[in-house]
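Reopening this one. Same input as before:
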Amino acid sequence: MQVPAPIWPKRAVRTAKARSRATDLAPIITQLRQEGVHSLRSLAAGLNTKGITAARGGEWSAAQVRSVLNRITGTNTRNSLQDR
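Same output, byte for byte:
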């Protein structure tokens, strides 16, 4: 009987891809912030306007932007940024 492989290596791969994507998006998010875009919804709209798709190819939501910001800063933005 074959024992299935543990799930955690797959999680590690997904996490590494998400970190890489967040690193790639950091300059774009910084640029949007310098242009006066600060709320999560506005950042999502800015990414959508620039034609940058979310991880699975769809449009950005505020929650997805929050996740990217958490990866970039290493902090929990849920309490520090308001979703307007």
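So the earlier flakiness isn't reproducible anymore. For the record, Residues 8-73 form one domain.
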